[in-house]
Specification:
The structure holds two protein chains of two kinds. Chain A is mostly beta strands. Chain A contains no helices and eleven strands. In chain A, strands 2, 4, 5, 9, 10 and 11 form a six-stranded mixed beta sheet that branches. In chain A, strands 1-3-8-7-6 form a five-stranded antiparallel beta sheet, with no helix packed on it. Chain A is globular and about 40 Å long. By secondary structure, chain B is mostly beta strands. Chain B has no helices and eleven strands. Classes of the chains: A mainly beta, B mainly beta.
């Protein structure tokens, strides 16, 4: 099955600096890569996603890049703010031939702390 | 308006007991999920239902039994609770199966503690 590795497990950056979180996946059949943000005591919330036919996607201060050849994708947060502090998860979805059995495999999470 | 709700938010119980967690979504979605998040924050899918039909069952012990009475509800019943069942359980829903890349909306979670 799919295996998703995520690094680093913890990341501290000064407010205003950029943060980068990286993930690698194992199954070349994966074609959808969402990123979720989980604040303390809450459920994960989708912040950005990218499909395999796109190399980069940006939404204000958040961007995601995908390298299908190397099977890795990254989350970039610029001009970080205290409210960016949270746990971030990457995920990958494998498109299988038997419709309905597709699922998301999550990375192990990155705890991002923004230092004021 | 709460999109995906779970009850209870906290559940503390003794080993060997049977307990249930309820989930409801008011988004009109067709697919619902149960995830388990352990103490290290690792998030892993347990079950997925599409239109009340079980489509994913990820090597979960038989003590866990999901039930979907209708598209808006997916409950999780756990028999003979064990210490290792202590975790946060998240319910989620999406417009279709995750295979279509539809965003999954997560509930607030139920923190289960087995003593």
């Amino acid at each position: 099955g799919e295996n998703v590795e995520q690094h680093p497990s913890t990341l501290s950056v000064q407010e205003g600096d950029s943060a980068v979180i990286k993930c690698t996946y194992s199954d070349s059949a994966s074609n959808y890569f969402p990123w979720y943000k989980q604040e303390l005591g809450k459920g994960p919330q989708l912040i950005i996603d990218i499909r395999s036919n796109v190399g980069e996607k940006k939404d204000q201060r958040i961007a995601v890049t995908l390298n299908k050849t190397a099977k890795h994708f990254s989350l970039h947060i610029t001009e970080t703010q205290p409210e960016d502090s949270a746990v971030y998860f990457c995920a990958a979805r494998v498109a299988l031939s038997n419709f309905g059995n597709e699922k998301l495999t999550f990375g192990t999470g990155t705890r991002l702390t923004i230092i004021p | 308006d709460t999109a995906v709700s779970q009850t209870p938010k906290y559940l503390v119980t003794q080993m060997g007991n049977d307990k249930s967690i309820k989930c409801e979504q008011n988004l009109g979605h067709d697919t619902m999920y149960w995830y388990k998040q352990d103490s290290k924050k690792f998030l892993k899918i347990m079950f997925s239902y599409n239109n009340k039909e079980l489509i994913i069952n990820e090597t979960v012990p038989n003590r866990f039994s999901p039930k979907s009475p209708d598209k808006a509800h997916l409950n999780l019943h756990i028999n003979s609770l064990e210490l290792g069942d202590s975790a946060v359980y998240f319910c989620a829903s999406s417009r279709g199966t995750s295979g279509r890349g539809y965003e999954q909306f997560f509930g607030p979670g139920t923190r289960l503690t087995v003593l």
